[in-house]
Design a protein that fits this description.
The chain is α+β, with helices and mostly antiparallel strands. The chain is 31% helix and 15% strand. Strand 1 (33-35) and strand 2 form a beta hairpin. Helix 1 packs antiparallel against helix 7. Mean pLDDT is 77; it is low at 1-14, 265-292 and 296-325.
Length: 325
């Protein structure tokens, strides 16, 4: 079983990949509007800032300036993809975050992320959006049936009152299959890109985790489709820093400034990196032994034990081991 691999050798890493996130923090501090909010802490907010873009082909966007809950983030993502809405099935560290949102007398969170991924309401009955988008992407990547309709929405129109907390990320998720055209991409295989619209972003605490989660999602989807991951782009609606996080935001700016100076001084040939850069392993047999077959949905079944239920497809435990988490 592979552990975290070395990075794709054909792709040159940019140690300043966090710059667009740091620019967002600076923009909020400099021109954001101070507003009240439902939490009582108050926020400094900007609307529709510049798009955040991350190349997840060679690395996962793990922020080097904060402790990132990699195990919990992967567990939560798989919880979504199983269609689960019961927080008691999560790891304890993530469960503690979700449990306070439970309504009195209820054991689940209502039709939030997992329910929307796997059983979104429609006039023709519940729609398994994960199944439909995977089938559509497979036909595009391997059978030549191009489409601009690889879209998932977790907003849940008309269901917000039933949700413990209306979904804030994944308002709209669109996947794209593209053929590499840039010389630096150095591959002939199809690439999977993803653009995610997020209606609300807690920039200092929640957003780094959301970025990591969707980075894992793109890599996982690409593995299931037997193609390469490409780019993740995130479009934000309301981007805010809570007033009690303002000092931390200013401290982050200074820390990042010092780190950029250090990296410039240490630049020798390829970038000298001392931070951990994580990439999923490319053991495709873990995902699908026969690449000619499209994904069967039991590979992403609604089982609590794992995301799959047989030896020839990726399981929660196998993914966790592959991630070394």
């Amino acid at each position: 079983m592979s552990q975290i691999t070395s990075l794709d050798p054909s792709f040159e890493l940019d140690p300043f990949w966090m710059q667009n996130y740091l620019q967002l923090v600076e923009t909020i501090l400099r021109v954001g509007e101070d507003t009240d909010d439902r939490t009582g802490f108050g926020t400094r907010t900007v609307s529709t800032p510049d798009i955040l873009s991350f190349n997840v082909r060679a690395q996962l966007p793990v922020f080097p300036y904060k402790t990132m809950p990699l195990k919990g983030t992967v567990d939560e993502l798989l919880w979504f993809l199983r269609g689960d809405t019961d927080p008691s099935t999560l790891r304890a560290d993530i469960q503690r975050w979700w449990t306070p949102f439970l309504r009195e007398g209820q054991s689940d969170l209502g039709p939030i992320y997992g329910a929307q991924w796997r059983a979104a309401p429609s006039p023709r009955g519940p729609v398994d959006q994960l199944h439909e988008v995977l089938m559509s992407l497979w036909r595009h990547a391997h059978e030549g049936h191009a489409s601009r309709r690889h879209v998932v929405s977790l907003w849940g129109v008309g269901q917000q009152e039933e949700m413990a907390l209306p979904c804030w990320h994944g308002t709209v998720i669109q996947f794209f299959i593209r053929r590499p055209t840039l010389p630096e991409e150095a591959t002939s295989e199809p690439l999977l890109d993803c653009t995610m619209y997020q209606r609300s972003a807690d920039v200092m605490v929640g957003l780094p985790v959301n970025i990591l989660s969707y980075g894992v999602l793109v890599q996982l989807m690409a593995k299931l489709l037997n193609i390469r991951p490409g780019k993740l782009r995130i479009v934000l609606g309301d981007a805010h820093i809570y007033q009690n996080h303002m000092d931390a935001a200013r401290g982050l700016q200074e820390l990042a400034r010092q780190e950029r100076i250090r990296l410039r001084r240490e630049h020798i040939g390829r970038y000298a990196l001392t931070r951990p850069w994580l990439a999923l392993p490319w053991d495709r047999e873990l995902v699908w032994p026969n690449v000619e077959e499209p994904p069967r949905m039991e590979a992403l079944g609604c089982h609590n034990v794992s995301i799959v239920d047989s030896d020839n497809v990726l399981s929660t435990n196998k993914l966790a081991l592959a991630l070394n988490v």
